[in-house]
Amino acid sequence: MAGIEETLRELVRQEGVLGASVVDYFSRLTLGAVGSPAGPDLEAAARGDTDVVRAKLFTLETLGYRQERIEDILITLDDELHLIRPLTRRSRQGIFVYLVLDRATGDLEAARDSLRKVEFELDV
To answer: What pairs with residue 102 in β-bridges?
Structure first.
């Protein structure tokens, strides 16, 4: 098991990662954040992304889908990729990991693989 800071430092070591955070979407609190000066304000993004996560999980429930079916939410900007991974396993309810990639240098599939691992390794 890995702690929040250790996990985030590992995520931002990947090429093209501009920042990463762990967020409690019930309280809107950022539990940890690591970013580069070139990346977005991770605290502000966390507050806004809680609404995105809540809306998607509500929609899944409305459709009769299990929350565990969601893997990630991808927001594609002209020069960045914003990846949100709700950690929907029972012991992680209310937590998501947010990752910002430079679109030119980041590797989306590698980032997704890393976030899958985080779900099993992160100790919150």
So the answer is: 80
Q: What is the CATH number of the domain that holds 49?
A: 3.30.450.30
Beta bridge partners of 76: 81
Close Cβ partners of 15 (under 8 Å, ≥ 6 residues apart): 105, 106, 107
pTM, to two decimals: 0.91
Residue 17 CA to residue 111 CA, distance in Å, equals 8
CA distance 102 to 109: 13
From the centroid of its chain, how far is CA 65? 21
Domain count across the chain: 1
Helix residue ranges per DSSP H, 25-72? 42-63
**Per-residue pLDDT tens digits of the chain, which is 124 residues long:** 578 999 999 999 999 999 999 999 999 999 999 998 777 899 899 889 999 999 999 999 999 999 888 999 999 999 999 999 998 765 667 999 999 999 999 999 999 999 999 988 887 7
Residue that has been written with the tokens 């390794």 in this structure = 121
Residues 6 or more apart whose Cβ sits within 8 Å of residue 48: none
